[in-house]
Amino acid sequence: MRLEELASKFEKLRIQFSEQSYNQDAGLPYDKDLMKNLATQLTQVSQDFLTNFEKPRNMYLISIAAIAVAEKLETELELHEQRVKKISTDKYEIAGRTVNWGTWRQFNSITDNPTKRKEVFDDFVKKALSIAPLVEKRMSISRDIYSRYSLTPLDSYLELEGLEYNQLHSLLMKLGDGARDAFLAAAEHLVAKVLGKKNFEYYDDFYTWRGRIYRPLGKHFEKIDGLDEVRRFLVTFGFDPSRIKVDAEDREKKSPSAFCFGIQIPNDIRICFRKVSPFTDFGSIFHEFGHAIHGASANPNDSVWKRYVVPMSVAETFSILIESMLDTPLFLKQELGLVDRAVNEIVDRRRFMNLAFLTFYAANSIMKMEFWKKRYSIEDAAKRWQELTKRFFIEVPGDYWLLHHVMPSYDMYSPSYMIASLRVAAVRERLRQDYGEIWWKSKKAGNYIRDLAATRGDFDIKAWNLDAESYLKDVKTLSFL
Ligand SMILES: [Zn+2]
Fold first, then answer.
1. Which of 210, 384, 397, 402 has the fewest Cβ atoms within 10 angstroms?
2. Cα(263) to centroid of ligand 1, in Å?
3. From ligand 1's centre to the CA of 311, what distance in Å?
4. What is the C-alpha to C-alpha distance for residues 40 and 433, in angstroms, rounded to an integer?
5. pTM of structure
6. Ligand 1 midpoint to CA 128 (Å)
7. d(CA 178, CA 229)
8. Which ranges constitute the DSSP H helices of 222-377?
9. What is the 232 CA–ligand 1 centroid distance (Å)?
10. Strand pairing partners for 99?
11. Ligand 1 centre distance from Cα of residue 291 (Å)
12. β-bridge partners, 260
């Protein structure tokens, strides 16, 4: 079979497979047998490619990934079911539902009594061990599949990201160490106001902070709608968001995190989210629309590998860029009509969460890199993650990493957000220099971003300097520190 024929077969199967995965995350009915069948066919096509071709290299890497996905499917489906069953407690309810892995974040954001939050945290961390064998299994399947091609998932990740191991490892260390003191000082300042307690402790996790810190901002966002605002912004910027489908319905089995799927790129892009609170929803909506315009900007005539094989940090570049509008004082004032006091409060609180993110994701990302490099077991991983949390913020029981929504279910991914955040700072600086302070009103600036988005898998990673120092300096500028 010719390369193009194989690739188009790959795309057709991928579309059908993505649709089922989308339904699964959206809490809609999905067909497990169909998924398994499609995964088997994807393995076949991928093996055909790997036997007959060595290039294009990104098609080679995605073919290995596709085989690994198929091999892991059964385990992943089980993990998906088991974690809501096993990570759960009958002791507390939220809106008539048991508190479990899926509703834990909601519970933490509305429960003002810290003792109750601690109790559930300790209980869930203990129960995390019950899903450890499944996590171990999915990781070892990945390791095994990649090793057949003399690679690890980490090798493939670094190659697509255009980074060396040491380069990324030391960048992440620098960000984690650099954010630490400012984060802890700011946490101490905010802990009473936000968490209603005297000290910041191990069970006050990133998601608890995030679920509560934007509460006082809700009042500014009750009368404006995130979807209307992001669409208006994108139209002014020269994009057409009308083809992007949005599902905002509340369903019991819907994922607690917002997400965007490029089912068929560029023609079928779907955003899905669950309403949490007015300002948090704004953040999620802007972020996911960034992913969506990235997908929708692809050239339909480009090859399958160019459209679909995008380094993960490039995917996050567009989402973080659009989300960063909410860190832009002039945008908040002029476009959302907010007064200075509200703007300052938003910028401060988002910067604080950015510090929290840097410390938490430095631990996540470094552990994940070492996991593959040093062949950690699940216990080693927990031990190392605990050490890293102690280094970057506060010592957290190591098994917590098994309860994260990205860490145990992806081979890699965590560092992508940090790489992308630094790249976005560089992109924004370019926009400001070339199109002025209010670049988001410039169609030319919009065209520039659309052209960047259209490069998809050919995005020029090396063109953007990742400057940790100036990034940290900016994030650490909090009005109360
Ligand atoms: Zn994202």
1. 397
2. 15
3. 12
4. 50
5. 0.95
6. 25
7. 34
8. 226-236, 278-296, 304-308, 312-323, 329-334, 340-373
9. 21
10. 89
11. 7
12. 271
pLDDT digit string, tens, across residues 366-397:
999 999 999 999 999 999 999 999 999 999 99
CA of 316 to the centre of ligand 1 (A): 5
DSSP E strands, 36-144: 88-94, 97-100
CA 289–ligand 1 middle distance (angstroms) = 10
241 and 269 Cβ atoms separated by less than 8 Å: no
Separation of 320 CA from ligand 1 center, angstroms? 7
Ligand 1 centre to CA of 197 (Å) is 31
We find that the CATH architecture of domain 165-475 is Orthogonal Bundle (1.10)
317 C-alpha to center of ligand 1: Å?
8
> How far apart are the CA of 351 and the centre of ligand 1, in A?
18
Mean pLDDT score, 417-430: 97
CA 306 to chain centre: 21
**Alpha carbon distance 276, 284 (integer Å):** 10
281 pLDDT above the threshold of 80: yes
Strands in 245-247's sheet, in edge-to-edge order, are 245-247, 268-272, 259-264
CA angle 22, 26, 31 (to 5 degrees): 60
pLDDT band at 102 (very low <50, low <70, confident <90, very high): confident
pLDDT of residue 384: 98
Tokens of 240: 């057409």
- pLDDT tens by residue, 231-253: 999 999 999 999 999 999 988 88
Per the listing, tokens 């519970």 go with 107
Using CA atoms, how far residue 361 sits from 59, 179, 470, in Å, is: 29, 11, 19
- Contact (CB, 8 A) for 452 and 162: no
**Mean pLDDT to the nearest integer, 1-6:** 90
Nearest to 109, CA basis, from 258, 210, 238, 244: 210
CA 169 → CA 186, 268, 364, 385, 390, distances in Å? 26, 36, 12, 14, 17
Dihedrals phi, psi of 100, to nearest 5 degrees? -140, -175
CA–centroid distance, 259 to ligand 1, in Å, is 7
pLDDT tens sequence across 187-228: 999 999 999 999 999 999 999 999 999 999 999 998 999 999
Q: What is the DSSP letter of 267?
A: T
Tell me what pLDDT residue 97 has: 86
Identify which has the larger pLDDT, 44 or 277: 44
How far apart, in whole angstroms, are the C-alpha atoms of residue 434 and residue 466? 19
**How far is ligand 1, taken at its centre, from the CA of residue 288, in Å?**
6
